[in-house]
Design goal:
The complex is a heterodimer.
Chain A lengths: L18 H8 L8 H5 L2 H6 L4 H20 L5 E2 L14 E9 L4 E9 L2 E7 L11 H10 L9 E2 L2 E2 L2 H15 L5 E6 L5 H13 L3 E5 L6 H11 L4 E4 L6 E5 L13 H8 L8 E6 L4 H5 L2 E4 L2 H15 L10 H16 L4 E5 L4 H14 L4 E7 L6 H12 L3 E7 L3 H4 L3 H9 L3 E6 L4 H5 L2 E4 L8 E6 L2 E5 L12 H9 L5 H13 L5 H7 L1 E3 L1 H11 L2 H12 L4 H8 L1 H15 L7 E6 L13 H5 L7 E2 L4 E3 L1 H7 L3 E3 L5 E10 L2 E10 L7 E5 L28 E14 L1 E2 L16 E3 H6 L2 H4 L4 E4 L2 E4 L19 E6 L8 H9 L7 H5 L8 E7 L4 H10 L7 H4 L7 E7 L8 H5 L5 E3 L5 E3 L9 H5 L6 E2 L17 H4 L14 E2 L5 H14 L11 H5 L5 E5 L6 H6 L4 E2 L11 E4 ...
Parallel strand pairs in A: 7-8, 7-15, 10-11, 10-13, 11-12, 15-16, 16-17, 21-27, 23-26, 30-43, 33-42
Antiparallel strand pairs in A: 2-3, 3-4, 5-6, 5-17, 9-14, 18-19, 19-20, 21-28, 22-29, 23-27, 24-25, 25-26, 25-28, 31-32, 33-40, 34-35, 36-37, 38-39, 41-42
Chain B lengths: L8 H15 L2 H32 L5 H12 L17 H9 L3 H9 L1 H6 L3 H9 L13 H12 L4 H58 L6 H5 L3 H7 L1 H24 L17 H7 L4 H4 L14 H8 L7 H11 L3 H12 L1 E2 L4 E2 L8 E2 L12 H7 L4 H5 L16 H10 L8 H14 L14 H4 L2
Helix pairs in contact in B: 2-9, 3-8, 15-17
The chains are: A alpha/beta, B mainly alpha.
Pfam families (chain B): Cytochrom_C, Cytochrom_CIII
Protein name (chain B): Quinol:cytochrome c oxidoreductase pentaheme cytochrome subunit
Keywords (chain B): Electron transport, Heme, Iron, Membrane, Metal-binding, Signal, Transmembrane, Transmembrane helix, Transport
């Protein structure tokens, strides 16, 4: 019942007449060599001045020149330090604990440095909160080496000295003291205790300071709701690990919802333990990662989500609520109510709708349920932006009430919906100073541009969650003539202190509480239990406790109970709920603006790793686009189609929201998109200060009116076709999907035999069927791998949320080049690790099985699957080289460039490879990547490997591959070898957990486990013997060293 | 472009040829050696006699004993004629007398406990203390007054420099003469041989001519006809197709052999001995002074790189060692044409050390050494793996470094060379807990006590190429 489900990667596969799919199935390299272009034009050929003899002369000369040049080697120089820093040993990495707090991403991280250069970001496992580095944080190390960074301060675009800037600012601030005009400071969210204190002192020094915090993607609604209910401007924290039932109304909480960072605790609750796992129901419009992971996904437009939430609330407290909902949604809500009532405290409800009423209801429901996963006592501070204050500031600027405007970490000219108003305002400001690492839309209109530090060059601190402090320390000296905003403030205030001293003072005074500064700095984090305790006791509202207790006792009566103890809150709740129930959409379709896992709010849009990172759902890189449901697309005449080389094109549309238009938005027909809704991602369409290659996509911020992520939009088809760099059809595995993804339900998993839901493929032997794992099924002799380590990697498909941290971590660790949009479109992307996404049917599961049984062999399965197009089930699968013990690639290499190690690695030897690409053709997993060009040192690929600055991020332990060689995942042999060497040198045995690959190290969800299967106590052995374990395409008998844990979905309805 | 002495086979052949010729000049070299030996014995004799002369110069102390104590206790910070960490001590007693009117009692106190003297508020003591950057002098309470007398005797009348210098010059002159004469004699012999050879050729030619003339005069016809009748040898050769075929095949094979040999040495830099920006002698440091390799190349313990020492490591010693011993200097000039003291000055310039004021100026200029051992980027090599884990001595790959005046690449560093060693070397498992389990399993499974690196998977491609 488990694995005879059918999966499809792209809508095209459902079309029986699509010839491209057939082509892609049969071809590894889709594009023909353009011989005809080259030789077909007889006229031109005969006219060309290079005749055959010339050609031979050139060949002769270049061969001779090449061999002459090879005779004498170049002279290399070795230049040692004059005075070697004590803690730097060339060739040995140093790690520093620091924190990223760039206004969008907040995380405690470790930075790996080599010879003083930060080269990789890793998770700080000491951090209980925010210790997971997502894809953007993993990639942020490259932003440090961005060749377009500002190298010094500018005045009106011209280079200037810091002294001049300081003098201008100081005199202006002085003259504004008593002028009645305000000094406005517009900044990102810092969540930094020291900066907050400093800002207080700045305000004290200059009485008329107005500090406004601005988040480009606002969580204002949630903040306001929390403030109204708990009196503090913060966000509630959720621990999904404690939740048994997770209900989400449009909250993409596995990505960037409310600052993100919830995926690890969610993943832990999703791995079945003792037959139990959480259940997750998602009501959403765009198909998100979170919806993809849900046990049940209910596609609803945002308006209907609100109605559904109101219904849920009403049904939970036994009242009636108006509001129209489709039947399937009503059923889903009814079922949920029953499930919640079984164990209210285990349930948690979240929402991503930017609406104060919605967020108030969410807080109320969680409180009402007494949800264990819900934590309002020590909230999170990662979003502080205040929409009202920003709007007031812009109005003040336009009214000429602002004398000086100082900005840090924000780019309002790009990310404000009313950027024109801002521009008008800034022109009336006497002095504008922008701190920025790059030249951008805002620096363009500012008088002074202060070149700012990258966070890896800076001191700082952050309080991600109440009582959880972390420190930021520089891991490299400033590369350029840059300065930290806080340092500048201190300088302007004339304290003579550096920000480092200031932080140390602040921490010593109020945070450390007697513990050691050096220890805190070394750990990077400090969980101040005292502080949390104090806050908790102050916050602990006995009425809330009572409330919870009463909930448990009598479900129906809790609304009245709540009313009794909290009259003001409950009054606002009832109005909030009724406002939800009466929510109506505008005249047009509903547009949901979201941020992509790779790009976020576009802060790092100049980072080629993130640009090339394919979206987990659409598998499109280098673009944003409008996701449209199939029925809407048909209605509007929009389409996606595949061109001859297998690449995807899409129609363009023009979007209009309240008279603001964005033109040339490409569309993608997205399975699972709720009818009547469309989605568009932020973060693209940046132009100013960007490399040309990186100026992709359209800017969605002009449509972000009133800072609401839901807008009523009218769509108009325009001419032209957009060329996507999509991995949709690439390396299709259709036809073999039984053996690729395996899936079952919790009830089957708990009640049936393993053979039933995770059968090992059978092969013929001696006219009888045997399991492929048996010895007789094997025609090969194998190494003796029983002595020394033998590595295996386990990937738990249940825990994987397709966050992509592993993809970027792998790219950083292994010097994987960026190839650019054009090349990705030709399917020449180089990622060693990709996360495949498969669709399958959900609701029609039983019917599907029956249908499939009656289907003739080799029939495409559009009949069964089209029904599920509106709401497919989604499976993610990270795929890298499977390191087969009987690898098909090894046997076909004519030069023996691939060999097998007894530790289990399939070893690719670049210096032997002559580029026949036989191996890639023979690889059933399509994980081998060919270097079509010399991506490093090639200005045609102006990303990072071609300039000195970008080269600094290259990992010196891994080769940079040249043109014409095949490459692939090496199972991070440089890391396992290092671990072994360290143990040998120390003369000790290796403990479990010491062996890690870049991907397993980056995965904070525990989805990837790496280890030595010859160590009987290792976790990997447990995984290998797990009932859920299966191998990819196991029937081929390749005996991979990578294993997967199949998907279990908790489909239990009440 | 790298320049290699052994790059071309032809040049090697020529080199061997020259070597063969030089064999004849061995006796002369031996003579030269004898000359050198005699000068060095003269040196040491002179040094000794210098010492005895000094003892006569001063009456209330033994300068010879003083010198010994001085070298043991004082020389790290003091020299006789130049400022180091502490002041120059040549004639120090007189100096103190002149400057402050202080006598030997003060010196006793100072040496035995300078800190005490300074804290007691002694004016001159504080002046000296401040003058030398407030670096307190180590107290020597163990030195007796007599010892100090001896030291003073030594400092007051140091061994005569002039005599030494004279001897130096003489020796240098002698040595120079010796080497020059040996050079000339070689040329003379070669010239004479060439002359003899030339004479022989000329004589043969003349004799032949004379004989022919005599024959002509006597009317004897030299038989030429027969040779004209016979087929010329090359035509005969060309006619014999089999012979032609065989020789062409042989030629091609030979050509291929040499071409292969030539091509295989491309990129193999064995013997690469570039001229370095500072003439650094491993012979003196590692050989004569027996400095541990890892004192300077400390990263070899923990890193893949052995590490070229940073200049501050050099200055650990060279802060005090500002010049080499006279014999060393002499040898350097004679044998290697290098003034070691000038090389030390180059170090000072690079590191920004102001010798005069014993201070760092802060103006440093990193030394751009020419890298000798270059592995290609696609090969991974780790020093700590081989040296610390494998217990391989540096010399096994780098050759007799302690004898190398100029560092050169001793091993070919080819893959075959690596693999060979991995095949032959047993893994050092004793006393390493990492191998305990593996060793036990192997012993049980295969009944072997030792196993090579290759058997452990040390010749798998991916172990070095990733």
């Amino acid at each position: 019942m488990a694995s005879n489900k059918k999966y499809w990667k792209s809508a095209a596969e459902l079309n029986p007449n699509d010839s491209m799919v057939e082509t892609m199935k049969n071809n590894e390299f889709a594009e023909e060599i353009p011989v005809d272009d080259f030789l077909g034009d007889k006229e031109n050929l005969s006219e060309s001045s290079t005749n055959r003899r010339d050609f031979l002369k050139y060949i002769g000369f270049s061969t001779a020149a090449a061999s002459m040049a090879a005779c004498e080697g170049p002279v290399y120089k070795s230049i040692p330090y004059v005075v070697q820093p004590e803690n730097i040993v060339p060739g040995v990495a140093n790690y520093y604990a620091t924190t990223i707090a760039d206004g969008f991403d907040f995380a405690s991280i470790l930075v790996k440095t080599r010879e003083g250069r930060p080269i990789k970001i890793e998770n700080n496992t000491d951090a209980k909160i925010g210790g997971g580095a997502n894809a953007r944080v993993q990639a942020s190390v490259l932003s440090l080496y961005d060749s377009t960074r500002l190298q010094g301060p500018l005045a009106n675009g011209e280079p200037v000295e810091w002294d001049a800037l300081d003098a201008a600012v100081k005199s202006k601030l002085g003259s504004l003291q008593n002028s009645g005009k305000q000094i406005a400071v517009l900044t990102q969210t810092y969540a930094s205790p020291s900066t907050e204190k400093l800002m207080g002192e700045f305000k004290a020094a200059y009485a008329n300071v107005n500090h406004v915090t601005y988040d480009s993607i606002s969580e204002d609604a949630a903040l306001t709701a929390f403030e109204q209910r708990y009196g503090e401007r913060a966000l509630p924290d959720y621990d999904f690990e404690k939740a048994g039932l997770i209900i989400s109304f449009g909250a993409n909480f596995l990505a960037d919802w409310q600052g993100g960072g919830y995926d690890a605790s969610y993943a832990r609750s999703r791995m079945p333990k003792n037959g139990k796992m959480s259940r997750h129901v998602q009501f959403e419009a765009n198909l998100t990662q979170t919806g993809a992971k849900a046990d049940k996904r209910v596609p609803l437009t945002p308006v209907l989500q609100r109605v559904a939430l109101a219904q849920l609330y009403a049904k939970l407290n036994g009242s009636n609520m108006a509001g129209e909902l489709p039947e399937y949604a009503i059923n889903a809500i009814d079922s949920l109510v029953l499930q919640i009532k079984k164990n209210p405290a285990a349930a948690v409800v979240v929402s991503g709708i930017d609406d104060v009423n919605t967020q108030i209801v969410i807080l109320a429901i969680n409180e009402m349920l007494g949800s264990k996963a819900f934590d309002a006592k020590s909230p999170k501070y990662t979003r502080q932006g205040n929409v009202k204050a920003v709007n007031t500031l812009i109005a003040d600027m336009k009214a000429g009430k602002v004398g000086a405007l100082i900005m840090d970490g924000v780019n309002p000219m790009y990310s404000l919906p009313n950027a024109a108003d801002f521009k008008e305002g800034i022109e009336k400001v006497d002095l504008s100073v922008t701190f920025s690492t790059n030249w951008n839309e805002t620096t363009e209109v500012s008088q002074y541009t202060a070149s700012a530090n990258h966070y890896l060059e800076s001191w700082g601190d952050a309080q991600i969650k109440k009582g959880h402090y972390s420190l930021m320390q520089p891991t490299i000296r400033q590369l350029f003539d840059t300065r930290l905003f806080q340092d500048a403030l201190l300088q302007w205030m004339g304290t003579g202190q550096s920000y480092y001293e200031y932080i140390k003072e602040t921490w010593s005074a109020s945070i450390l509480g007697g513990s050691s500064w050096n220890k805190a700095l070394q750990d990077g984090v400090l969980a101040s239990s005292d502080n949390a305790m104090v806050m908790a006791s102050a916050d602990a509202d006995p009425t809330v406790q009572q409330d919870i207790a009463s909930d448990k006792q009598e479900d129906a009566a809790n609304e009245t109970a709540a009313e009794e103890v909290q009259p003001p809150a409950s009054v606002s709740i009832s109005t909030a709920v009724s406002s939800l129930a009466n929510a109506t959409s505008g005249s047009g379709m509903e547009l949901i603006l979201y941020s992509k896992t790779g790009m976020g709010d576009g802060r790092q849009a100049n980072n080629p790793w993130l640009q090339e990172f394919a979206d987990p759902i659409t598998r499109v890189s280098w673009d944003n686009y409008l996701t449209v449901s199939k029925s809407d697309a048909e209605r509007l005449g929009l389409e996606n189609y595949y061109v001859s080389n297998g690449a995807m094109n899409g129609s363009y549309v023009k979007l209009t929201v309240n008279g603001t238009s964005v033109d040339k938005v490409p569309i993608i027909v997205q399975p699972g998109q709720a009818r009547g809704s469309v989605g568009l991602a932020f973060g693209y369409g940046k132009k100013v200060g960007m490399k040309e290659e990186m100026q992709v996509g359209v800017n969605a911020f002009p449509l972000y009116q009133n800072f609401s992520n839901i807008q009523s939009v009218s769509i108009e088809k325009t001419d032209g076709a957009h060329e996507f760099a999509s991995e949709q059809l690439q390396n299709t595995m259709a036809g073999r999907s039984n053996d690729i993804i395996k899936e079952t339900t919790l009830s089957v998993f708990n009640t049936e035999d393993k053979e039933h839901w995770n059968a090992v493929p059978k092969v013929d032997y001696n006219h009888s069927e045997i399991e492929v794992r048996e010895k007789n099924a094997d025609i090969w002799q194998s190494f003796d791998r029983s002595i020394g380590p033998h590595f295996n990697l386990s990937i738990d498909l249940n825990a994987c949320t397709a966050c992509g941290a592993c993809v970027i971590a792998c790219q950083v660790e292994n010097n994987v080049p960026v190839v650019g949009k054009e090349e990705v479109r030709k399917f020449r992307d180089m990622h060693w690790l990709r996360i495949d996404r498969y669709y399958s049917s959900a609701e029609t599961f039983k019917q599907e099985i029956e249908d499939l049984e009656t289907l003739p062999a080799f029939e495409t399965y559009e009949k069964v699957e089209i029904a599920s197009y509106d709401n497919p089930e989604v499976a993610f699968q990270p795929v890298m080289c499977q390191h087969c013990n009987h690898a098909p690639c090894e046997t076909v290499c004519p030069v023996a460039a691939i060999s097998h190690g007894r530790q289990g690695q399939n070893q690719m030897v670049y210096n032997r490879c002559v580029g026949t690409r036989y191996c890639a053709n023979n690889c059933p997993y399509k994980v081998r990547r060919f270097n079509w060009f010399l991506y490093s040192d090639n200005d045609e690929f102006d990303y990072y490997m071609n300039n000195d600055l970008g080269k600094m991020v290259i990992n010196p332990d891994v080769n940079v591959r040249s043109r014409g060689v095949m490459e692939k995942c090496s199972m991070c042999i440089q890391k396992t070898q290092k671990t072994i060497l360290d143990a040998k040198r120390d003369g000790r045995a290796i403990k479990d957990g010491e062996f890690q690959t870049a991907c397993s190290l980056a995965c904070d969800k525990g989805a990837m486990v790496f280890g030595d299967i010859n160590d009987e106590n290792a976790e990997i052995v447990e995984k290998k013997n797990d009932d859920r374990m299966y191998h990819l395409l196991e029937s081929l008998g390749t005996k991979p060293n990578v294993m997967y844990q199949l998907i279990v979905k908790n489909t239990a309805e009440a | 472009m790298q320049k290699l002495s052994y790059r071309h086979r032809i040049s090697r052949v020529v080199g061997i040829g020259i070597l063969f010729f030089l064999l004849f000049s061995l006796p002369i070299c031996a003579q030269q050696k004898a000359v050198q030996d005699s000068t060095s014995t003269a040196d040491s004799e002179q040094a000794d006699s210098g010492g005895s002369e000094d003892s006569a110069a001063d009456t209330d102390g033994d300068p010879a004993a003083g010198k010994q104590i001085f070298n043991q206790n004082c020389a790290a910070c003091h020299a006789l004629d130049r400022k180091m960490t502490g002041p120059a001590l040549g004639n120090v007693e007189q100096k103190i007398q002149d400057e402050a009117g202080l006598g030997r009692d003060w010196i006793y106190k100072w040496i035995k406990n300078s800190a005490g003297l300074i804290s007691s508020g002694d004016e001159y003591a504080n002046k000296i203390y401040n003058q030398f950057n407030q670096v307190a002098m180590t107290a020597f309470p163990t030195l007796s007054n007599e010892d100090i007398d001896n030291i003073l005797a030594y400092t007051n009348a140091p061994p005569k420099k002039a005599a030494d210098a004279g001897a130096d010059q003489a020796a240098a002159g002698g040595g120079g003469g010796g080497s020059a004469s040996s050079g000339i004699s070689n040329e003379i012999i070669l010239g004479a041989l060439a002359l003899v050879f030339g004479l022989l050729v000329a004589m043969l030619f003349l004799v032949n001519k004379t004989l022919q003339r005599i024959a002509a005069a006597n009317g004897i016809a030299v038989e030429k006809d027969e040779s004209e009748k016979r087929l010329p040898i090359w035509k005969a050769f060309a006619k014999n197709q089999f012979l032609v075929f065989v020789s062409v095949v042989l030629l091609l094979l030979g050509g291929a052999y040499f071409a292969y040999g030539w091509m295989m040495q491309i990129g193999v830099d064995q013997g690469y001995e570039p001229i370095q920006p500072i003439h650094y002698s491993h012979r003196i440091h590692a050989g004569e002074n027996k400095i541990e390799c890892k004192y300077c190349h400390s990263s070899a313990r923990v890193s893949k790189h052995s590490g070229i020492p940073s200049l501050n490591v050099c200055m650990n010693c060279h802060k005090s060692i500002y010049e080499v011993a006279d014999e060393t200097l002499k040898k350097g000039k004679q044998e290697y044409g290098v003034d070691y003291n000038k090389e030390i000055k180059k170090l000072y310039a690079a590191v920004g050390w102001d010798e005069e004021n014993q201070k760092y100026t802060g103006e440093s200029q990193p030394v751009e050494w020419i890298r000798i051992h270059n592995l290609p980027d696609f090969a991974y090599f780790n020093h700590s793996q081989h040296h610390i884990v494998g217990g391989i001595q540096c010399q096994e790959c780098h050759g007799p470094v302690e004898e190398m005046e100029i560092m050169y690449q001793y091993s070919p560093l080819t893959m075959g060379w690596c693999i060979n060693c991995h095949r032959e070397t047993n893994v050092k498992v004793e006393g390493n807990a990492y191998y305990d389990k593996i060793h036990e399993q192997l012993a049980k499974k295969y009944g072997v006590e030792t196993f090579t690196v290759a058997q452990m998977g040390g010749i798998e491609c991916g172990k070095c190429h990733y």
